[in-house]
Amino acid sequence: MKTVLTGKKILFGITGSIAVYKAAEWVRELTKAEAQVTVVMTEAATRFVSSLTIAALSGRRVYTGMFEPDAGEEMTHISLARESDLFIIAPATAQSIAKLAYGFADDLLSTLVLANHAKVLVFPAMNSSMYCHAATKANLTRLQEYGYGVIEPEQGKLACGDEGIGRLVDWERARESILSAFADQDFAEQTILITAGPTWESFDPARHMSNRSSGKMGYSLARVAKRRGARVILVSGPSAIEPPPGVEIINIVSAQQMHDAVMEHYSSADIVVMAAAVSDYRPGKTMEQKIKKGGKSIDLELVPNPDILKKLGQKKKRAEQALLVGFAAESRHHIEEGQRKLKEKNLDLIVINDIIGKDTGFGADTNRVSLIDRDYQLEKLPLLSKEECADMILDKIVKLLQ
Ligand code: PMT
Questions:
Q1: What is the pTM of this model?
Q2: What per-residue confidence (pLDDT) applies to 67?
Q3: 1: in domain
Q4: Active-site option among 160, 206, 398, 401
Q5: Whose CA is nearest to atom 26 of ligand 1?
Q6: Is 337 near ligand 1, meaning CB less than 6 Å away?
Q7: Are 154 and 113 in contact (CB under 8 A)?
Q8: How far is Cα 325 from Cα 215, in angstroms, rounded to an integer?
Q9: How many angstroms does the Cα of residue 334 sit away from the middle of ligand 1?
Q10: Residue 356 alpha carbon to ligand 1 centre in Å
Q11: CA distances (Å), origin 320, targets 121, 151, 278, 317, 374
């Protein structure tokens, strides 16, 4: 299936760290995403894993020496460098980082980096003390000054038995960095506040009322906005979804808590996207003790929760100008209801989705939305994955920002 990475020519440099086994997995994932991965290994890397294994994973020949015997008159490093769309170096050892920092070209990999014109992403992996050493820090700073992306390793248990920073990041984090390298950074300098997921309104310590929101739509928006360079603040109700890397997450439970978190961060946001399914009501009172079943029916009074989006719309009237995007979860009269909410809540954009379709709305991995902007321009999107849907919503926001 076509992906963002389909056909992308990726040069993948592997250097001599025990974390080579994780990089091999990345080669496999990138190849699965239909990227054309050409791996270049240092001599040291071949001591950790054979070039044959890597060739099997990438489906392409693997380079290790400077000049391949059968390269003919065409210099390998020039032809490989000329064609690449992205250059990844993972794992990057302290030694390879030092060589790149000073422009050495004593093997194919370091020579390729100098001859390369594409974006370079460096993923360090080493013992904590080595990573924290001033020399390594200075070398990494130099790489950043060259415009290379340096993705900080993780904390954790290292191959040498130490605990600390130095573990090669996992594939999820690497994937986001790679996709970000291919994405327009059209949200750089923007802070986007996104809400996601349901809220829980408690009756007693054991019971609450809620809805079927999984958080997928809001988390997709956060993931894609981050990829496109935004600072992302994600206010999330209870959700099983792993927060996207690099996103500032604020976990809440009730609508009131979501309200408080949104109002606290509103002033630092350029854009607010309310994708959360906020409960409109909560029990009039939450019992201290668990309500014991007594066999007879129970009447529970429900009182309205604050309408967060409406309050933001009112603040906007008072010229506090975050661009305001709301969602409408509708089962009928979708466009009319969306237009009403757009006007009533003083929105810049409303995203209308159907919540009774089997592949749209709550819990689905896909969604089919209609967008109506403040000029009542209607745009109907086809059924898309929630990530693609998020991309299109963000494209629309870019147009509104202009
Ligand atoms: O999380 P998923 O499983 O991926 O499902 C996605 C979704 C269906 C939850 C999402 O696409 C969606 O439609 N979210 C909005 C759900 C909702 O509450 O819609 P609504 O029409 O009831 O509310 C209208 C807008 O007002 C929404 O932006 C909502 O966040 C906001 N609102 C609602 C109630 C309230 N008290 N305060 C609010 O701010």
A1: 0.88
A2: 61
A3: no
A4: 160
A5: 309
A6: no
A7: no
A8: 17
A9: 14
A10: 14
A11: 38, 35, 23, 7, 17
Best probe residue, ligand 1, of 239, 272, 309, 327 (max atoms within 8 Å of C-beta): 327
- Ligand 1 atom nearest the C-alpha of 350 is 28
pLDDT of 162: 82
Range of the domain at 142: 9-182
14 CB less than 6 Å from ligand 1?
Answer: no
Q: Which pLDDT score, from 0 to 100, does residue 157 have?
A: 85
Output the CA–CA distances (angstroms, integers) from residue 193 to 247, 253, 276, 374, in the order listed. 10, 17, 12, 19
- The sign of the CA dihedral 307, 313, 319, 324 is positive
310 sits in which H/E element = helix 308-317
SS3 22: helix
- Beta pairing partners, 194: 234, 273
My answer on whether 259 and 353 are in the same domain is: yes
pLDDT at 318: 66
The pair of structure tokens assigned to 118 is: 């594409």
Residues 114 and 231 in one domain: no
Is 132 an annotated catalytic residue?
no
Q: Are residues 99 and 178 in the same domain?
A: yes
Best of 213, 281, 334 to mutate for ligand 1, by most ligand atoms within 8 A of CB?
213
Tell me if 291 is assigned to some domain: no
Tell me how far the alpha carbon of residue 342 lies from the centroid of ligand 1, in angstroms. Answer: 13
- The Cα 71–Cα 52 span in angstroms is 19
CA 394 to centroid of ligand 1, rounded, Å: 17
Q: Which of the residues in the chain have pLDDT under 50?
A: 73
Q: Which of 125, 153, 182 lies at the terminal end of a domain, its last residue?
A: 182
DSSP 278: -
Q: What's the confidence (pLDDT) of residue 70?
A: 56
